[in-house]
Amino acid sequence: MILSLDLSTTNSGWAKFSLKRELVAYGEMAPKVKNPVVNKVPKYTYPEIQLLKMRDLVDQLLTLLTDDLEKIVIEEINRGKNRLGQKTLDGLHWLLLDRMPQKFRDMVVYVDSDGASGWRSKEGLALQLSPLDKEKNKEIRKFNKKHGFKNGTKNAKPLITQKTLACKYVNKRFGLSLDENKRTKDADIADAIGLGDCYLMWRKM
Predict the structure, then answer these.
(1) pTM surpassing 0.85?
(2) Residue 50 lies in domain
(3) CATH number of 166's domain
(4) What does the alpha-carbon distance between residue 149 and residue 169 come to, in Å, rounded to a whole number?
(5) What is the pLDDT of residue 135?
(6) Are 109 and 116 contacting, i.e. CB atoms less than 8 angstroms apart?
(7) Which partner for 195 in 1, 4, 64, 122 could form a disulfide, CB atoms 3.0-4.6 Å apart?
(8) Tally of domains in the chain
(9) What is the pLDDT along the chain (205 residues), one digit of tens a residue?
(10) Per-residue buried b or exposed e for 59-90, using 16+ beta carbons within 10 Å of the residue's own CB
């Protein structure tokens, strides 16, 4: 059994596969910690609230570690512009590793999402925007601008992104109905499934 993880501080996608590249289970996990407000002031502030959320998320992720696992495939971190968000994500990765029993830590492999060796690349699942996709995005941006809609907001037409391509890929391959524009969590699930599927494809080559 293979476990693939697309770790995120807000919502982490996961998927389990048989060694025959069959999708067995999938889902997502988000921190359940709430920050109580006392006299209109949040009880916890940075960095305590972030630490509490990451501990809670790791506790959930650890429940996915079962004795039938052979490999744990984790998507490598991509650098972000949000300094504190990036710091928290880095911390989540290390906290998860620290809490893992050694036998599971020995199973961990990291895979890039983008770049020449990424699971989205031509060497992977080839989830790259086509010239037609890029042309459609130009039209969508013009439409949104014309009507005063900011890209990514409720009334705007959605752009075609790599998240879109991941959802389309896993929907076609595994008969799912993920839609990142209706449910943002679906994008994290699709990425976890795509990551694991690509790893198993490489493994058989």
Answers:
(1) yes
(2) 2-204
(3) 3.30.420.10
(4) 28
(5) 94
(6) no
(7) 4
(8) 1
(9) 999 999 999 999 999 999 999 999 999 999 999 998 988 889 989 999 999 999 999 999 999 999 999 999 999 998 777 888 899 999 999 999 999 999 999 999 999 998 888 999 999 999 999 999 999 999 999 999 888 888 777 788 999 999 999 999 999 999 999 999 999 999 999 999 999 999 999 998 7
(10) eebeebbeeeeebbbbbeeeeeeeeeeeebbe
Report d(CA 185, CA 179) in Å as an integer: 9
List the structure tokens of 125. Answer: 């699942």
DSSP symbols for 79-129: P-S-HHHHHHHHHHHHHHHHHS-HHHHTTEEEE-SSSTTSTTSTTTT----
Give me the count of residues in the chain: 205
* CA pair distance 116, 126, nearest whole angstrom: 11
Report yes or no: 91 and 23 within 8 Å, Cβ to Cβ: no
